[in-house]
Records
---
Amino acid sequence: MKAIAVYQSKKTTDSNCFAEVDIDQPKPSARDLLVKVKAISVNPVDYKVRTSLLEQQSTPRILGWDAAGIVQELGSEVSLFKPGDEVYYAGSITRPGCNSEFHLVDERIVSQKPANLSFESAAALPLTAITAWEALFERLGIEPRKTSSNQASKILVIGGAGGVGSIAIQLAKQVAGLQVIATASRQESIDWCMKMKADYCINHHNKFTTELEKIGISQVDYILCLNNTDGHWQNMADAIKPQGKICSIVETDHPLDMNLIKNKSVTFVWELMFTKSIYETKDMQSQHELLNKVAQLIEQGVLQSTMTENFGSLNITNLAKAHARLESGEMIGKLVLSGINS
């Protein structure tokens, strides 16, 4: 089968950034599904892994952790799917990625694709939806329904126009009923956040408390940090309420000064959506279940796909352009590509 691979980190302007390779089609075993990949989405983790490959790889490294496609074959222990099912999922970072014609994935992290979405629109969702859902409803402990407590609470989403922010705003507002304040600085980013149903937007280049005061808010109950944890740490410590909760998905370059949130007894938690698949945790199948819920919410019109750009079919040229687009730091929503042309 065809796949798009990396052998060593190169700039996206280099014609050898990616290589098309022919490899054996994998065989599913145990709880694996073999999926015919119809569309993929590109995330920051893709270029971060690519740029980390400083040494020449002896075997092709296939990236990609967002896919939608059709189940072709089943492993011997599969119970959740059948051949022909249309699915979407984010895969595991410890296994070969989905930038290929066919892909193996554990059924416990796969869901039926939203019936009303194209493969491309569906592929935009899994990784970011899992990240946002786990961050909000598992790490921060917010109820995934419109309770009176939620409706009286405020969440600040730092980096609201990105892939995770785009779906996190929708989940926090449409599912949980929170008052949502997103951060954005460019007008197109602000417009996108408001389209995703944010109540307000503030500028993350300014002091958070000053920006919040402009909209009549002193402090927030929750913060979801999706950009520059180091750079926003003091701002987060100032803006969070006593006994509030902060969740970040962005690794730090330096140790955080946890003393800044000590007096307020603030909770700080990390979210990595790959944790469950890396360690095959007991609740790994919760990702199958939450993606099913997201699909239902999409079909009901409560949530919408965050796809904003389609770069065409998956090939070395288009994938390099996609990585360059994400590396620019100006991506709004999600970027997708259709599957490899056989």
---
Amino acid sequence: MSDAPQLLTHAEEAALLRLARRSLEAAVRRKPEPRLPVEERTQTLLDPAGCFVTLMVAGQLRGCIGCPMPDLPLHEAVVVSAGDAALHDPRFERVQPGELEAIRLSVSVLTPPNPAPVQGWREFLAFVEPLRHGVILRNGRRSALFLPEVWQHFAPSPDPKSEFLSQLSRKAGDWSGDLWRDPATSFEVFETIHLQEPD
């Protein structure tokens, strides 16, 4: 398992949220992608990192897309993810300009995903920690990812780990929800720093 995410300063957190908001609005209004101001370009924001941008309206998901692998500088990954969450989440219609004011936006900065140090789903159940670990499930060409924040939706369940993994299996296209028990399934885990716009 990778180390915990590198901490961000308050100024860096604010810069990422501003950049995500500007990117969201630019994508929806068909304007050029914004750039991180030169004076805000710290080394942490220039280093490669994965991220996801989540859009919520009145507590309901409106879009969530990201770059799970550290292939882009963090500030660029935020720009791409915010635009894609608004326009290219296949679960939703494109965000319209009239919706922008109601959207509450969050940014999750990821550690690089690493294979879970386990053999089989039983060991993984014992290993995975709700609210700490994000999970990537892989089985052949099928894969799916849940951020650590998704755990909160399963807290009322009598068996939140099984419910989390069953829903992750369904997201990967297995409607039975049992893909996570397949011996051919592998798991990767990561952690996040979660940043959220104020109400």
---
Amino acid sequence: MTATQTQHKVVSGDEWRKARLAHLAAEKEFTRQRDELSRQRRELPWERVEKNYVFEGPYGPETLADLFAGRNQLIIYHFMLGPNWEEGCKSCSFLADHFDATRIHLAHRDVTFAVISQAPMPRIAEFQKRMGWRFHWVSAFATTFQRDYGVHFTKEELAGEVNYNYGKTRFGAEEAPGLSVFYKDEAGDIFHTYSAYARGLDSLVGTYQFLDLVPKGRDEDGLAFSMSWVRHHDKYGDDYAVDPTAGYEKPREMVECCKHEELA
């Protein structure tokens, strides 16, 4: 056995097929359980959205109703890009690399997809251009939207535990990741139907679904922060290396002179 080979059990073709069929039965049961969980999710009660949120879009003001773009269902990803951050969160960027390809398919199933951040629109536009993304992205800088949906905290709140993912927890940044779903009826009334945070966002990451199929899996065991290996897609290079002791690192904030220019 060469140095590159693993000490994994190796069997005959017949034994391999027997083991695979046993695991297939477990996979099918998991699929049935997932389908049932999705059905239960669709039966959750809704809450009416009472506030009239007005966001800053790339071409001017946009209401929450505008974000539906004529459809009845809306998925919003809460992207971690703070008002003074130099760039977006690399973990959110990892997710965002998967968004553009699905938008055309969602649109033909009566679903609009949009992204919202706390940063002002010029900061969003600059980072979006750098990353080459095309999805619709608006700013909640002048609204309480991100705070109302549990993904924006004050510096004072961060000194203790914050309310995130339906519980109290310590959090290291004023922005947090999340996803929220809304429905707009024929009368124009809007309802909040679902929100998910933290590991509830796993299913959005196509790369993880591929990694789960290979022998090493996600290969995140032993890392202080599971996604510490992730880079912005324009920052991977020949010198790429994973620091297993690295925790979550909030993007640096802009220097003071640039803050005033950006928010003016």
